Amino acid sequence: MNSTPAITLFGGTFNPPHWGHLKPLKQAMTALDISRVGLMPCHIPPHKKLINVSAQHRLAMLDILCKSEPSLYIENIELTCNDVSYTCNTLKKLKEIHQCTLNFVMGTDSFQSFKSWYQWQEILKLCNIIVLNRNNRPLNKLQEVTQYISCGPNDAVSLADKEALSINNGIVVSCHFPTVAVSSTLIREKLEQGDYQYLETGELLPLEVLEYIKQHQLYERIKP
Ligand code: ATP
To answer: Is any atom of ligand 1 closer than 6 Å to the C-beta of 184?
Structure first.
């Protein structure tokens, strides 16, 4: 089972991708010695506001990121099935394909609602979870998790813990790097309002992604 190194995946809608996804992810990768991460775009889940941006555009924006960050790649498994995919089922499929340990990355807000995820206990048996600090929300620890690892500017992760992450399941790593206060919602709002000035500083999202958005007139308010 452990001949292949662990695979790390970061699931999201990435509608659009932004620095809040990338900066803490890169810091966690460095601290945990993770050399590659698959960005795994999902079908837009039912609880998210419907936005008229196709999966192809979301993929194209991720592709731009991966071209400038060779440590990232796109894991397209969820977009290639027509159904809304549950993380648990996706992880099962990936485990079957790769036969190795899996790590799944999410922000603290997602971890906050983790107990409402489909078969969340099963997810803990299939992977480790790397939680990125978002808006300085404290980590809502779960009784069911037996090992928490703290990782941040002042918390070096021991070799033994790194090794545990590459062979075990059900470990939660709490990453507390400085938070980037941005969401895709905020970016979409700015674009809908035609407010490009702040976006052009490059503080919220990479300028190459913004360029793509402008070129394809994504997220603009539909004119009556
Ligand atoms: P939206 O505003 O449309 O809800 P979002 O900004 O939350 O989108 P998603 O692509 O839905 O972005 O998020 C994917 C994952 O990335 C989630 O687990 C989320 O918690 C995490 N994430 C998003 N933004 C941040 C951020 N600023 N800091 C840390 N984690 C983040």
So the answer is: yes
- Take atom 29 of ligand 1 and give the residue whose Cα is closest: 134
Cα-to-centroid distance, 96 and ligand 1 (Å): 27
CA of 146 to the centre of ligand 1 (A): 26
Contacts of 162 (CB under 8 A, 6+ apart): 32, 33
Mutation pick for ligand 1 pocket among 8, 13, 135 (CB with most ligand atoms within 8 Å)? 13
CA distance 189 to 220: 9
Q: In a 10 Å sphere around its CB, with 0-12 CB exposed, 13-18 middle and 19+ buried, how is residue 99 labelled?
A: exposed
Instruction: Give me the phi and psi of 4, to 5 degrees please.
Output: -95, 140
115-149 pLDDT per residue, tens: 999 999 999 999 999 999 998 888 989 999 999 99
Mean pLDDT of 61-73: 96
Task: Kindly indicate the confidence band of residue 1, based on its pLDDT and cuts at 50, 70 and 90.
Answer: very low
Q: Indicate the helix (H) or strand (E) that contains 95.
A: helix 87-98
| pLDDT band per the 50, 70, 90 thresholds, residue 188 | very high
Please name the CATH architecture into which domain 7-179 falls. Answer: 3-Layer(aba) Sandwich (3.40)
| Ligand 1 center from residue 210 Cα (angstroms) | 17
pLDDT value at 48 more than 80: no
| Euclidean distance between CA atoms 40 and 73, whole angstroms | 9
Q: What is the mean pLDDT of the chain?
A: 92
Contact in structure between 218 and 188 (CB atoms under 8 Å): no
